[in-house]
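[Backbone geometry]
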Amino acid sequence: MINYLKYFFNPSHLFSLRPQAMEARAVIILAVVFGALIIISLGLFFLINKTKDGLKVKGYRRLSHLFLGMGISGLAYLFFAWQGIAILGSRFWLLVWLLVLVIWLFFIVKYLLREVPKLRREIEEKRSFSKYIP
């Protein structure tokens, strides 16, 4: 398994425009990962319906869209790789996919950890100020 991972992430293999067919193990592992992202997205969708906090709902909705979009695009990549389509099935798309996932997740976490507390403080200040206004 370790040797296969070394081969799979070897730069000459990773950036080849005509990579060899994926082994069944790699296809199964990637299908499970991409399927899990879609299932997590559906779980977040149901969590959104139960949450009453509007600021958290916006963050959860962003996470749900991230996981759904990345799961579907990952399954599309897996289909192209399985069919042996030269450019669309190349392994470097996994790096692009991972880069997009990390950047998108960074902005969502930034929103949840920085913006939500700031917005909560602003709402609380407005409430405390407005209770003195007739």
